[in-house]
Amino acid sequence: MVSKNMTDFNSEKVIEIKSLDKAFGTYKVLEDATLDLYKGENLVVLGKSGTGKSVLIKIIVGLLLPDAGLVNVLGQKVDTLSYQELLDLRLRVGFSFQNSALYDSMTVRDNLEFPLVRNRKDLKKAEVNSLIEEMLDAVGLSQTINQMPSELSGGQRKRIGIARTLILKPEIMLYDEPTAGLDPITSKEINKLINDVQERYHTSAIVITHDLTCAKEVGNRVAMLMERRFERQGSFEEIFNSGDKLAQPFFDYNFIQ
Amino acid sequence: MGIEKETPADTPKPVSKFGNLFITLYNVFKFIGRFFREAFLPPYEFKELMRQCYEIGYRSALLISTTGFITGLVFTKQSRPSLSEFGATSWLPSLVGIALLRTLAPLLTGLIAAGKVGSSIGAELGSMKVSEQIDAMEVSATNPFKFLVVTRVLAATITMPILTFYTAMVGMLGALLNVSVNEGTSATTFFQSALENITYLDIIASTTKAIIFGFTIAIVGCYQGYHSSKGTEGVGKAANSAVVTAMFLIFVEEVVCVQIFSLFNT
């Protein structure tokens, strides 16, 4: 797939974050963080470990509450929603966990069926099966349908986690460190999958990572989270070539690795 | 109900131990309140409820059979010398029947279930919390509380009375073995004698205690698992706390129930 340029996307915001603050006790993680996600784009959030990248997407899906600021997702202010409204919103926002978070007492089929049968009661058994097969095919793992998560490799678990998220056909995908702990070849496959998902299902996505290869391959736009806020935003090349003294050590370190 | 503040990492501000106790009590009551709210509202997880009944009930049966049988056997053996001093060994079946049904069966079943079921629920939910499986249910628009907590608590509450009467029955078989070997009493005579002094109140008291114990074991296990801290140590602590707290509460509840039901006996 030819990577889209950031100018290809319209100005419709699907996620709007303004002046977001979040602290755990006295430890401030995010302070005055502002970020927008536009419809159809893959936005990469780059930053060192422990800078609050995962906290950010957990706030977006309402797993954590912001201390202050605006978090608007698909036109809804997340922290003011009732629990049922929040569950309804989560149908439209997929979340792929860093460690996949597959239900380890269920087979791959049951993992994919779990959210589907509880949220799409209109579907017949044959339609459920067909959707499961479609999603497994989309991530290239049809043969694992009856396997347990413990029988899968790290890369396969990531793919199944993405398939389970995709099965509800979300409008927004949130990827938490999709390539963490994977070898370069499997990482490349996951990067391709993220681009395929964007193209095939027309999703908008936030990809949390500290992997520069991933950022370069999947990101239409990159936002750098440094010192609790988004200091730099732009295309990968713009940030990479900016020579910014805050961003540069991160790039140098990654390439040395 | 807005966003659940019980979800991860809303780190509590430092408070005194006394303050912490009140925060914990508040969270426990909130958790129990949520259980009652969620239990009666659709959608219902019948399939998972049945699976949990099987897990909690059927899988505990072997351990309960063994301990129940031995308890009945040993209790009869230990009681014989005292009764034989008064030439009252014929009262053994009656004594064993009342002791088993009123106290031994509910208490024994409760303690065994606290160890087996409570630890298992605490460890399973703790491990799911640590590996973000509970969060994964949340973000896939499914209510994990309904699927994980409501089903387990209901299953334990339903199966405990069944297990309790099963323990009493197996315990009586142990007693029967002892009595028939020593006194040559037939099974018919034994059961007639054992059951003739048991009243409806005994059965109601025993059932009530079993329901309370079942609810306690599962709600404590679920609470500890659901609120376990990150890491494998947190899972271990959740399982351990689930057992210790449930056992302590079972003894407290036993005392309270005995006091309440003794009012009806007079």
Distance between the termini of chain A: 27 Å
Q: Report mean pLDDT of chain A, rounded to a whole number.
A: 89
Number of strands of chain B: 0
Examine the coordinates and then state which fold CATH places here, giving the name of the CATH topology of the domain at 9-98 and 173-256 in chain A: Rossmann fold
Spans where pLDDT lies below 50 across 5 or more residues of chain A: none
Strand content of chain B: under 5%
Q: Strands of the largest sheet of chain A, in order across it?
A: 6-7-8-3-9-10
What is the level-2 CATH architecture name of the domain at 9-98 and 173-256 in chain A? 3-Layer(aba) Sandwich
Main sheet record of chain B: none
Radius of gyration of chain A: 18 Å
Separation, N- and C-terminal Cα atoms of chain B: 46 Å
Number of domains of chain B: 1
Query: Could you tell me the number of beta strands of chain A?
Result: 10
Largest interface: A-B, 36 and 26 residues
Gross morphology of chain B:
elongated
| Helix proportion of chain A | 25-40%
